[in-house]
Amino acid sequence: AILFTVSGPALPVPAIAGSDVVLDCKCSTDLPLEGVEVRWFRTRFDSLVHLYSEGRDQTGEQEEAYKHRTELFKKEFIHGNVSLKLKDVWGSDNGTYRCFIDYAGWYEEAVMDQCTLQCVLDGVRLLCESSGWFPAPEVLWLDDQGNNLTTFSNWTVREDSKGLYSVKSQIEIIHSTNKIRCLIHNEENEQEGKLHISGQLLLSLSMNIYLHFLTDEFFPKVPVNLVVSSVLLGLVTVALSFVLPYNIKQHREIKGMY
């Protein structure tokens, strides 16, 4: 048997959400491409992040969340480098990773108890604004679990010269979530913006919605603009990719205005 040791980084590995990160793992001996098994996993031996054996990557039993997101530097095996490249990291990737090598009748494992992948999410500010409302609307922020985040936001309502209202609300992401809902509504109408945060950059997106009034003589069709955007703070490179379906009740009953 060939005796060897396996080592990983001594410090936690930081990663910006949506970016790629390399988890270092080094074997003390040179490794061939044949006759070696390299296994990356989380808490359980069979919870495969990446498996290389029999001279190739084995994806059949790989965890679904890691498919098409992992890569080994096979040309570096000859130098004992079995580091893992993890692509498009997200909050769910946080945790401890283990690097296991089985070669020539000997096996070793690097348990990275302190090598916790840290996705940087703090400092992402979202802006949701809409105009052309009557009566004045309210704003509601929800995460993907349905938790009300409105208390963490600030918002203002303004009335224009036509008696219509505009609203603007901002919220800063303070915990890991990959979906945010901005709901703007009043007693009779509702608009909803859904944001999915990923590695693609989209600073702002907007759409026009026309509310249809039953009494056009007194209340002509008014364009209602819903704009949702992100403001990136510091060095955080998290942005928004497009998922903006909307839900709107288009009919407004106006009584006593004939």
Automatic annotation (TrEMBL):
GO terms for molecular function: signaling receptor binding. InterPro entries: BTN3A2-like_Ig-C, Ig-like_dom, Ig-like_dom_sf, Ig-like_fold, Ig_V-set, IgSF_BTN/MOG. Residues 18-118, 124-198 form the Ig-like domain. It comes from the Eukaryota. It is found in: Membrane. Its main location: membrane. The keyword Glycoprotein applies. Keywords: Disulfide bond, Glycoprotein, Immunoglobulin domain, Membrane, Signal, Transmembrane, Transmembrane helix. The chain crosses the membrane at residues 226-248. GO terms for cellular component: external side of plasma membrane. GO terms for biological process: regulation of cytokine production; regulation of leukocyte cell-cell adhesion; regulation of T cell activation; T cell activation; T cell receptor signaling pathway. The keyword Hydrolase does not apply. Belongs to the SKINT family. This is Ig-like domain-containing protein. It comes from Callorhinchus milii (Ghost shark). The lineage of its organism: Eukaryota, Metazoa, Chordata, Craniata, Vertebrata.
